[in-house]
Design goal:
By secondary structure, the protein is α+β, with helices and mostly antiparallel strands. About 35% of the residues lie in helices and about 25% in strands. The chain has 14 helices and 20 strands. The chain has helices at about 25-35, 85-95, 110-115, 150-155, 190-195, 195-200, 235-255, 260-270, 280-285, 305-320, 360-375, 390-395, 400-410, 420-425; strands at about 5, 10, 15-20, 40, 60, 70, 75-80, 95, 130-135, 145, 165-170, 175, 180-185, 205-210, 215-225, 275-280, 295-300, 330-335, 350-355, 380. The strands form 5 sheets. Strands 16-13-15-14-18-19-17-20 form an 8-stranded antiparallel sheet, sandwiched between helices. It has a 5-stranded antiparallel sheet with strand order 6-7-11-9-10. It has a 3-stranded parallel sheet with strand order 3-5-4, with helices on one face. A hairpin with a 5-residue loop joins strand 14 (about 205-210) and strand 15. The longest helix is centred in the middle third of the chain and has 25 residues, at about 235-255. It starts with a strand and ends with a helix.
Amino acid sequence: MVFVNWARNQSGTPAEVRTPSSVAEVVRAVRDAAASGRRVRMVGTGHSFTGVALTDGIMLRPGALTGITAWADDRVTVLAGTPLRVLNELLAARGLALANMGDITEQTVAGAIQTGTHGTGRDSGGLADQVTELELVLADGSVTTAAPGDDLFDAARVGLGALGVLTTVTLRVEPAFLLHNRRRKLPLGDILATLDELTTANEHLDFFWLPHTEACLVKTNNRSPGPSRPPGAFRRWLDTVFLENTVFGAACALGARLPDLIPRINEVSAAALGDSESIDASYRAFTARRDVRFLEMEYAVPRDRLAQALRETRDLVERMDWKITFPVEVRVTPPSDAWLSTAYGRPSAYIACHIYRPTPNPAYFEGVEEIMTRLDGRPHWGKLHTRDASYLAKVYPRFADFVRLRDRLDPDRLFTNAYLDTLLGG
């Protein structure tokens, strides 16, 4: 079997594929791999753009490790292979919700946590910051539980699968709530001049700058007492299916054939942006649909360097005369205490650059990466970048501690692959 990720830019052929349906079967796979001199990795749904999930040994598919195993008023324990979209539905049926989440729900719980999926939030962090307990199968085949106060807990929440195979996760939840979603068109210059006000005034801020224009689509989500006013079925289809996917996909395809038209295409898209409001369940307001395939690089920079990073990115695109169809996305999060969280120890801002999958532009990513690394940026673990252990050790205060813990727990590198060898050292 050949494994291919969602973006179709990563592929690999494992020696064996297993679909464990219990922790005991994960333990057996880990012990079999160790006994036969092979490596083992648990793969998610392939939404990472890097080779983080690849293995030439035993690949574990988590499709049978799904569902909720324990409920409480403020906690839920879920099997690692549960898709986020399924978790959202199960929580909603019980009147519960996650405090924050990213905008894609196809990933598994474990895959999203292990690669640092973060969403956007003034006060609430990414999924790793909502974890209260983890269960892992370690390289020696033992099963362990990591809880607050343990180094393993702070290391394994964003663990890249390098410390063990994650089998269950306990997440903090809260009573279901509504979000007042506003979508507005604002000029980039106005946003740069009022970044502090925007980030402090809104619980969740997400904006998209359309290259070759001054237009930004600004999305804010703030808690609302209601009543609920969700977008109608037609409006939801028009925005999330037709405009953001069908029409946008056609624009990308046209730009791929006629690149010189891209600035004009983006101007037309900018003119079509309009304001809208709705009040809806949080998990629906947070999430979006993404059908057009792309490649992505995302960096987290200190929040106080966001304006500089954006200005330099805009100036670079104009100077190099690249034709970029996809918007540049910006989000923010508070500090995290997970060792390899991109927000570890500092309020962070995220700048994500995308390119249409059929027309990759490595120079664009390289140029933006130079800006981000000069500003002490940290690359998203599941998105394209060229950083290695020597760089990462400079921007993560607990990086050496993570590597030492990995050396102790997996001295024979049972859980490694080529991507992790670059990130953490061979």
